[in-house]
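Researcher: Next sequence.
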Amino acid sequence: MKFTFTRLLLFVAAIACASTVAAQKRLRFEAYPVRGKFDGAPAKVNLHSHPKARMFRTMLRDGAKDGPNFAGYYTVVTWGCGSDCMQVAVVDCRNGRVYFAPFTVSPGIRADFRIDSRLFIANPPERSGYKEGEAMLDVLQPSWHVWRGGRFVQLWPRHKRCGSCF
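Model: Next structure:
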């Protein structure tokens, strides 16, 4: 019985690791292209577009003034929110609308994103030293998100939807 249970446990662990590696290889910037790119001067940040926007107006204005750096039309803005925490917001350069991410990133690890892709990688594993199966704080764990319909949709790790998450 003990031998069979051990084999079963090893089998489940192997499948979990294989699916994680497969998910990480599949989620590439090229798989999430944008349809257009913003040209022109970015719109003023609309501080009435999100309840938190006025509270962070200086960081949002300073971060958004250089124009888009994500998904064609958007600017990702980050700022410190604690000792190991960076808040993430997205500003639409066309109309100044502000969106807040439902996650934070670690200051030492940060995030990967591109102007020609809708993929956003929080705490990329190549910079965090994250290895599947090792213990790590949830806030430091890598996660992959796609920008869709004015919000981040978490692609990996798979996540149960809850009222406070998205």
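Model: Residues 2-156 form one domain. The chain has one domain: 2-156.
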